[in-house]
Amino acid sequence: MNYNIENILLALLAGEPVSNAEHVVLKDALKPVFFGKGFMTWARNEKRDEIKENIISEGNSLVYSVKNDANALIDSFASMASELNQGGQLNLFYDLYKIFPKFQGDALKGNEAKLLTIIKDALQSEDKDAKARATMLIALYAESSNSQSRKSSAGNAAEQAIELLMRSIGLVKGVTYGTQFIYQGSNTDFVIPYAESGDINSVSAFIAVQVSTNDRARLSSSELHRGAKRYLCSLNGCNASSKSTKDIGDDLAAGYLDTETHYVVIERERLAAIEDAERRLEKAEGTPRAVNAKRRLKWLKTYAINYEEFARQIKQLASE
């Protein structure tokens, strides 16, 4: 069936009946207006640089306020970055209806640009109901976009936290550490020391960073290079994270043991993870689950380290 999208949108804003099928068609048709090169990306870019500058400034201040405590630095930075990102996002959310009319939508094509104009007209009309419906429409797409943005911001904050720790112990980007190292199509967050992408033999340590390790099924091929140490840095257990080591499956943990992957978390999470692994093994005794439960415990006791020890190890590797 062919639908007249403009008429459906006009009907929705006018409070006229819209069928379920028409709602679905309209929702898809409006995606380019809000996503990709649409309104939400444009609106977020207006605030992104400001938030980034605030995070960098606050991070530099943290280095001095939590001297000689790498665990506190990571935990505090994660909380601060989360607060600034979420706060900035909420401030923007409540102002979206005000800034929407300023969006020109230069990248929109044909019918997409017409849909943008219809929403703008409703926002600026004297009809309070139409204005309210247009505002709700913007909020609908904004929350969907914000959900993805929160995941991206959290990932960026995790990498920023590790890089801040590196700088706090005297490591220099482009000299004693590198970022976004590529080998055989795989991208590694950090390497020590700095090396050109592909020059795997010059790397002493590969460092992968995740907000929570349970959403990382495996490390990339470059991070599994046997000639160097492998670190998996996680914000599991931090106040800003809703995840913990408990969320990592025994089979995944066993895989990290096989690849001799160091698991880096704040100290209280390291201790809690080992205690949990011991309880798991006790419950699994006499069952098929005991095999991986034992390997999980061995991995954590052998390779789980806190950020203080991580900082000591990478500083030593960088100086070799």
What is the element layout, followed by pairings?
Elements lengths: L4 H10 L5 H15 L4 H27 L4 H24 L2 H4 L10 H14 L4 H41 L9 E6 L2 E7 L12 E6 L18 E6 L15 H9 L2 E4 L2 H18 L5 H14 E2 L1 H13 L1
Parallel strand pairs: 3-4, 4-5, 5-6
Antiparallel strand pairs: 1-2, 2-3
Describe the protein's architecture and organization.
By secondary structure, the chain is α/β, with parallel strands linked by helices. It folds into 2 domains: 5-168, no CATH class; 178-319, no CATH class. The protein is 59% helix and 10% strand. A hairpin with a 2-residue loop joins strand 1 (178-183) and strand 2 (186-192). It is elongated and about 65 Å long.
Q: Tell me the number of strands.
A: 6
Task: Outline the biggest β-sheet.
Answer: 6 strands, mixed
**Helix-strand pattern:** HHHHHHHEEEEHEHHEH
Oligomer: single chain
Percent helix, as a range, is: 55-70%
Estimate the strand proportion: 5-15%
Mean pLDDT: 89
Morphology? elongated
Distance between the termini: 68 Å
* Total DSSP helices: 11
- Assign the structural class, choosing from mainly alpha, mainly beta, alpha/beta, alpha+beta, or little secondary structure: alpha/beta
Number of domains: 2
What is the CA-atom radius of gyration, in angstroms?
24 Å
Give a nutshell description of this structure.
With 320 residues, this protein is of the alpha/beta class. The protein has helices at 5-14, 20-34, 39-65, 70-93, 96-99, 110-123, 128-168, 250-258, 267-284, 290-303, 307-319, and strands spanning 178-183, 186-192, 205-210, 229-234, 261-264, 304-305.
